[in-house]
Design brief:
Blueprint (H helix, E strand, L loop, with lengths): L1 H11 L15 H7 L6 E5 L5 E6 L4 H10 L6
Antiparallel strand pairs: 1-2
């Protein structure tokens, strides 16, 4: 359910937002690398690459955008 949302964000915010989808079933080592315990997990990074929030479970497009806005990172 998350992949279409992430694909849409990747297209709409190209150049402003880097969106990466990792299929941990196909890449199990990535789940260890990022400490993923539940699918889906969204990990948010600031412009310097520092993680500032992690969410487990479904997350709507609006909630994803709100997460960046709450951090003061305006994408529009």
């Amino acid at each position: 359910m998350m992949k279409p949302i992430l694909d849409e964000l990747k297209t709409e915010y190209k150049g402003k937002l880097d969106v990466e989808f990792i299929d941990v079933w196909e890449n199990p080592k990535e789940s260890e690398k990022y400490g993923i315990n539940l699918i889906p997990t969204q990990i948010f990074y600031d412009p310097e690459g520092k993680e500032f929030q992690r969410h487990e479970g479904f997350m709507s497009k609006e909630d994803i955008l709100a997460t960046f806005n709450q951090k003061g990172m305006k994408l529009d």
